[in-house]
Amino acid sequence: MVNCSLCNRPAVYVMRAGGKAYCEHHFLRYFDKKVRKTIRKYRMFREKEHIVVAVSGGKDSLALLHYLNKLSNRVPGWRISALLIDEGIKGYRDRTIKDFLKVVNELNVDYRIVSFKKEIGYTLDEIVKIGINKGLPYLPCSYCGVFRRYLLNKAAREMSGSVLATAHNLDDIIQTYLLNIIQNNWDKVPKLAPVSKGPFHPKFVRRVKPFYEVLEKETTLYAILNSLYPEFIECPYAVHSVRWSIRRYINELEEKHPGTKYSLIRSLLNIIGILEKLGYGKEGAIGTCSICGEPSSNKVCRACMFRKELGILT
Amino acid sequence: MRVRFADGTTKELNVNGISIRELFKTLNLLLEEYIVVVKGRVVTDDYIVKDGDEVILYPVVSGG
User: Fold this and answer.
1) CB-based contact (8 Å) between B63 and chain A?
2) Reported ipTM
3) Is 0.90 topped by the overall pTM?
């Protein structure tokens, strides 16, 4: 049985890329050190912040809320709130909301739940049906992603948040990176930076990814060791995603060649620098949507474009 | 031994004295995609599973 490289107790985690093993105590110390280093390296937070944590009720976002709430005890100028977007996915989001409520109540954190139904007028399930009836391409994940990002920014601003923290981990980021390469979407690659970059719209809430350099296996273990791992449930729309195949492929590579994931994130950070020098992703969110007044890099934002196509613009 | 998946399904296997790594090969699963718990403790891939053990697999990949 593998023992901890630091204290000889039974290991719970083997870092194959670095050749080290950690017991529960030293894994949690390693995790804390790694996230704090990421926060410092990319200057994610200032001394005084109202951090709104985007929480879905899944293991990663519950882990982020738990971690930042704990860290905030050491930073007097920080205030932590949680924000959940209820897309209205029957049999899925209604169940993860229960896990969300359990944790925010245990941690005694202020929270807000914002629903597609109330803000957009329809649940995601209804939106998908409207799209099918209109003969539009089947795009549940695109509708969900665009409306969710739109509402996260709007609600975080309404909560007077100074920064929005999302639980994207290293695995999420490199999957999106490869997805963008496959789809030849180089403009989207600079948006995968650990912190959102300016120029900023006055209505745009700065975004940060504190788990940027943390593996999904590590966020999962953190969630399990802190009794945060929720009831396992999968989004019914996720099976249609190309991301699923990319994830499996990267995990196979990592298993055969430990360190592949860290190489990919370094590759991404290098390419972001190169692309920015070439002028990619520079347009940012500097304009204002002529329909809803929210930040947009185009005359009409993507959320309003989708609403127009679906015929649900009121 | 019994393998319990996070969705509640189980699989009975007639094996004894194999490592988690060998068990994953048998099940055609990737170690990268699960955290393994035996007797309430997180274990690493060299842990030897004994007859009567229940191995719980927590997926790392989330479907949402």
Assistant:
1) yes
2) 0.95
3) yes
The model's pLDDT over A270-285, given as tens digits with 9 standing for 90+, comes to: 999 999 899 887 655 5
Please determine, looking at this structure, whether the domain spanning A42-310 carries the CATH number 3.90.1580.10. no
Please give the residue range of the domain that contains residue B27.
2-59
Nearest to B32 among A96, A217, A234 (CB): A217
CATH code (residue B43): 3.10.20.30
- Nearest-CB residue to B32 (from A10, A58, A251): A251
- Closest by CA to A225, choosing from A37, A63, A5, is A63
Number of Cβ pairs < 8 A linking chain A and chain B: 71
B64: in domain: no
A197 vs A51, A200, A207, B5, B6, CA distance in Å?
17, 8, 9, 41, 39
CB-based contact A170:A259 (threshold 8 Å): no
Q: Is A87:A147 a contact under the CB 8 Å cutoff?
A: yes
B17 CA: distance to closest CA in chain A (Å): 13
